[in-house]
Amino acid sequence: DAKTTQPTSMDCAEGRAANLPCNHSTISGNEYVYWYRQIHSQGPQYIIHGLKNNETNEMASLIITEDRKSSTLILPHATLRDTAVYYCIVRRGSARQLTFGSGTQLTVLP
Amino acid sequence: DGGITQSPKYLFRKEGQNVTLSCEQNLNHDAMYWYRQDPGQGLRLIYYSQIVNDFQKGDIAEGYSVSREKKESFPLTVTSAQKNPTAFYLCASRRDGNQPQHFGDGTRLSIL
Question: What is the β-pairing status of strands B4-7 and A104-109?
Answer without folding.
Answer: unpaired
